[in-house]
Design goal:
The complex is a heterodimer. By secondary structure, chain A is mainly alpha-helical. Chain A is 73% helix and 1% strand. Chain A folds into 2 domains: 130 residues, no CATH class; 140 residues, no CATH class. The chains are: A mainly alpha, B alpha+beta.
Chain lengths: 318, 179
């Protein structure tokens, strides 16, 4: 018979986790951690595109750009982190209470701790993936997940070893598969994070190229010299057929269409523009500071996986 | 393209940010409403001389209250002057005609040809603000233009062209006297 895992062995980690979770109760702290300026920059960038290119855009294109909203204070981001912090605290507090109770009952097994961990981890991953939505304004939005998680942790996870074996004889294998599943989900989330970031970077590069084309063409229109003509990128000059006499007067319509098509294509292929931009800016413009709360948002559920992996390893070894 | 009050405010703020930072970015400007906002920001940020080459000075932009107010604010400031060169018979508002700081001329045929040749465009207008800001209208029918708040080289070329054309053309009073 395997030695039951002792929560008492993990008390220090649980206390540390609870302490970290408490920090995220306070959105004011996140206000300092997350520089709102970086987010304001995103809005300025979008206004800049609208301002700079509006002459070649139709009302529909402008409306599509207007629909892009980026919260400069990142309220949804902060409230998600705070929400997960509160939930982590509830779960960790429940485990600490169980650990305190363990002193008198040395034969508890935590095979079914998996259930509450799974629920919490899946919930956290969904919350992180939907981080740009603000779901957590009311107290009920906290109580609804917190009470079931606490109850499941308190009542459904603690079994005497004998009764545990009767209810679920293959608990260890189930734990293996579940753990593999969690890690895959977390890895998928991480991959998606980097994929979005890469897409945003591509979008940014496309915008910069478009800006270069626009400025070179406009400069030639204002000062139609041979030198300025040669500075126009070849992709613009190739819009016109060989033999076509390119003059400032007869080129505008095709160029405007090129610009509008490009911008429409970019908006179409990057319909989650605001989210991707937010990711990109937070990664590349404001440095690693903004990544810290985001990373902690991922670390909290990953920490639970780690704790549970340790408990399973402990069980297997013994 | 019509602007709602909010859009106009947002566009004005964008333009003011360009003016404040002396941005050398070239921006596109299309439609009457956007043109009015741009003109008013350019005029509010001009300290001395404004030169405008236009059709007749009676377009929807020239008649817009926001444009008239911005122009009056500019003309009320010290050491300012406005030179207007029109390709058709000038029909500017009396408010501008009767001011000493305003000089209006109807462009000569030769000068008009020079401008068209320079820009290789027969549908163009342009306006120069001080020594660094310009608005070049490549399609006056749709008020489509390019603009920059900091392009001294381009402005110098445009100013030379404008001043040469202006001196070649007769003042409006003289035209009226001849007629």
């Amino acid at each position: 018979m395997s030695t039951p895992v002792q929560l008492l062995d993990l008390t220090a980690i649980l206390q540390f986790g609870a302490g970290v979770s408490i920090l995220f109760f306070y959105q004011e702290m996140l206000t300092y951690v997350v520089p709102a300026k970086a987010r304001t920059n995103i809005i300025q960038e979008i206004s800049k595109w609208k301002g700079q290119f509006h002459g070649v855009l139709t009302d529909n294109d402008i409306n599509r750009l207007n629909r892009i909203t980026v919260d400069p204070q990142l309220q949804s981001f902060k409230s998600t982190i705070t929400h997960l912090g509160k939930l982590s605290f509830v779960l960790l507090l429940t485990l600490l209470l169980l650990a305190a109770h363990e002193e008198q009952h040395q034969h508890y097994s935590y095979d079914y701790l998996l259930i509450s961990s799974v629920i919490f981890i899946v919930y956290s991953i969904i919350a992180i993936l939907l981080i740009h939505h603000n779901f957590y304004r009311r107290t009920a939005s906290f109580l609804l997940p917190a009470i079931p998680i606490a109850l499941i942790s308190a009542f459904a996870t603690v079994y005497e070893i004998e009764s545990s074996k009767q209810i679920c004889p293959h608990a260890e294998y189930a734990a293996y598969w579940a753990l593999g599943g969690f890690i895959s989900v977390v890895l998928l989330a991480v991959c998606k994070f980097y994929y979005d970031e890469r897409t945003a970077k591509t979008l940014w590069t496309e915008c910069e190229q478009l800006k270069t084309c626009f400025e070179a063409f406009a400069t030639w229109k204002v000062q139609p010299t041979e030198y300025n003509f040669l500075r126009i990128p070849s992709q613009i000059r190739h819009l016109y057929q060989r033999g076509f006499e390119i003059t400032p007067e007869n080129t505008q319509e095709k160029f405007d269409k090129f610009m509008a098509d490009k911008i429409r294509h970019m908006l179409k292929s990057h319909h989650r523009l605001s989210y991707q931009l937010h990711l990109y800016i937070s990664q590349h413009k404001s440095g690693f500071i903004t990544a810290i709360p985001k990373a902690i948002g991922i670390v909290i559920p990953t920490g639970f996986i780690f704790i549970y992996a340790v408990s399973i390893w402990h069980k297997i070894v013994h | 393209m019509c602007l709602t009050p909010n859009e106009a405010k947002e566009y004005r703020e964008y333009l003011l940010s360009l003016a404040e930072t002396h941005s050398s970015d070239i921006i596109s400007n299309g439609g009457k409403d956007h043109a009015i906002v741009l003109y008013s920001v350019l005029l509010d940020n001009s300290r001395n001389d404004v030169r405008i080459f236009c059709q007749s000075g009676s377009s929807a932009v020239w008649r817009a209250p926001e444009f008239i107010e911005a122009m009056n604010r500019f003309l009320k400031r010290d050491n300012t002057s406005l030179k207007v060169l029109t390709s058709e018979e000038p029909t500017l508002d009396r408010t501008f005609r009767n001011q000493a700081k305003v000089e209006i001329r109807h462009i000569s045929t030769d000068a008009l040809r020079k401008i068209k040749d320079h820009f290789k465009n027969s549908k163009c207008n342009f306006a120069i603000f001080d020594t660094d800001k310009y608005r070049y209208e490549y399609d006056f029918e749709h008020f489509k233009a390019y603009c920059s708040f900091n392009a001294p080289d381009v402005v110098k070329t445009m100013t030379d062209l404008f001043d040469a054309s202006f001196s070649d053309s007769a003042p409006v009073q003289e035209i009226a006297a001849v007629q």
